[in-house]
Amino acid sequence: MIEKITEEQLNPQQAEFFVKARQAVDMGNYPYAVSLFKALVKNIPGFLEARKALRACEIKLNPEPKKGGLFGGFRLSTGKSKDPMTTISALEDELEKDPFSVAVNEELYNAALGVNYPELAAFALETVRQGHPSNKKMLHLLASHYVTYEMFTEAAEVYRDIVKIDPTDSVAVKNEKDCMAKASMKDKWDKANSFKDVMKDTSETNDLDKADKKGLTRAQLQERLDKLTVEYTADQKNLSVVRDIAGVFEQMGDWVNASNFYHYAFSLSNNDVSLQNKGNEMTERARKAQVEDIRRRAAENPDDAELQAQLAQISREVAEEQVALCRQRVENNPTDPQTRFELGVALFEFGDFSAAIPELQKARNNPHIRTRAMLLLGKCYDAKNMNDMALRQLSEANQEILEMNDVKKEVLYLIGLLNEKMGKKDEALAAFQQIYDAEYGYRDVAQRVESAYSN
Fold it and tell me: Which strand (E) or helix (H) includes residue 291?
């Protein structure tokens, strides 16, 4: 069995080594970073954070899955070593050459299970999922792994991906629904005080689910609100009633009341973070609705100086509030790259590009949000007129995004604009042409490409 290690548990020498490896990443020296991270994981096999960083560097150096990798031609002979620990170490040498290898990652999955390390097993299959998102066999294996360890939310997401690939996969369709239901029930068991509480919550949730599916009219929602108000008047500390009222206000689009009741529900709960998050979300929506209303009126009255000043003032206030909210989330969960990314976004929108950069640099270490973080980093560098650094960041992001999705189009568009700014017309045209080939109506790409041929 492998002892799981976090960064906080490293001894001073190991911690210094880990910092040195991350510095190599920040400097773009990926081969050196790979050598350092690999030494770490072989010395501390339970340090999954270093292994994830290692794989991210290997993917930087080998962004495209190798030919034949989908089916896999490699198999580590089990005769070489029956010790899973030795196998895990040997497999890292193979993954350095082809981090997306289906066969090698499947071997790593099996070896990780052999030492009771399900997190590493899941990571191996998630790597395959990133490199070969259409490999149904491995996706089913990953989903089944999550189910085995009662990670039903994660399992449902994987099954959802399978359904997108093959809508006729009846097993995935059924299992996605089952896992979503189990995730909901598991959450209730975690929070409930008794079996009676679970059954009560389940009954009430079913009522709300049915209401959602029916697509209730405004009048029907108001009728439900009236009934709940009667119950609330009788007992204003009934958490279920308060939460249901918040939900109805949310469905009605009354963000202010929804925020008030979700926050009140949080105060009645045993620190149910999901209710706090809901309240914060409703507060944000209320603010955004207020801004949109002022923005609409300002657009209709461009000569109204007072209205224009009001729009500028409230836009800045909203941006400040968003930064403060995101900072709080980072303080509550400093190791979560998603909260780092959200803080980076908020700081970027506030115009504090220098403060946004370190948050986005931390966020890009997570493979799931890496390219979006790199895109925003490129925008930050661009805003600071650091054109060469912006172009390098965006070019790296472009290489890592394999499909022509919305993020890749925006990356290519910005690459085109930056090359234009730097006087590199041929490079700019080449970037715009890639978008033109995929989506003729994207922004002003058609006009830019076609005008280049008419000149």
Answer: helix 273-300
